[in-house]
Amino acid sequence: MFIRIIFTTLLLCLFNLCFADEVYVIDGDTIKLDGETIRFSGIDAPEIKQKCIKMKLEVPCGQISKELIEDKIEFKNLNCISEGKDQYGRTLAECFLEDESLSSYLVRQGYAFAYRKYSKKFIKDEEFAMRHNKGMWGMNFIFPWDYRRQN
Predict the structure, then answer these.
(1) d(Cα 55, Cα 73) in Å, to the nearest integer?
(2) Contact, 72 vs 79, CB < 8 A?
(3) Between the CA of residue 76 and those of 80, 98, 110, what are the distances in Å?
(4) Cα–Cα distance between 120 and 42 in angstroms, integer?
(5) CA contacts within 13 A on the Cβ side of 151
(6) Which helix (H) or strand (E) holds 5?
(7) What is the Cα–Cα distance from 92 to 83, expressed in whole angstroms?
(8) What H or E segment, with its residue span, contains residue 21?
(9) Of 114, 94, 130, whose CA–CA distance to 45 is shortest?
(10) In what helix (H) or strand (E) does residue 62 lie, and over which residues does it extend?
């Protein structure tokens, strides 16, 4: 039995499905997992300092995006499936809590967007959020890729 558990764990790790021990959320689409920086592939979340406007009030949408992920993963086992590296050397991955994708969750909540330039995977989640005015879709906002270009 013990040998089977060790073998299964090693096999999962070979396929980048190891469970993480230490997670730090950098922003809505980037975490540090056991010391490795992971950028969620296929989505783009607002920058940490990015603000939105709702009923003439500033809303810290970048901070909210980060907090949604922090609250979601608190004290839970997270596993990520690597999809390679980005131009900054970060691991591109989709991360899951059990069978729920964190990327899908964040996009459906309206605090991240399907990054269509790189993937079509989360378009249905984005359409759901848009249809229901979830998160940023119920506010005036700038897409994260436009915000980065302007700042």
Answers:
(1) 31
(2) no
(3) 13, 9, 23
(4) 7
(5) 13
(6) helix 2-14
(7) 5
(8) none
(9) 114
(10) helix 61-73
- Which amino acid belongs to residue 15? F
Q: Using CA atoms, how far apart are residues 42 and 114, in angstroms rounded to an integer?
A: 6
pLDDT at 86 over 70: yes
Element (H or E) spanning 101, and its range?
strand 100-101
The residue with tokens 């997270």 is: 78
Strand partners, 127: none
The whole-number average pLDDT for the span 31-57 is 96
Output the six-digit token pair for 123.
């378009």
Query: Which residue, among 142, 109, 101, 102, has the nearest Cα to 128 in the 3D structure?
Result: 109
Q: Where are the domains of the chain?
A: 21-143
> Quick one: tokens of 53?
């406007």
User: In a 3-state reduction of DSSP, which class is residue 95?
Assistant: strand
Q: What is the pLDDT of residues 87-131, one digit of tens each?
A: 999 999 999 998 999 999 999 999 999 999 889 999 999 999 999
C-alpha 61/C-alpha 25 separation (Å) is 15
Q: What is the pTM of this model?
A: 0.83
- What number does CATH give the domain 21-143? 2.40.50.90
**Looking up tokens 């009923």, which residue turns up?**
55
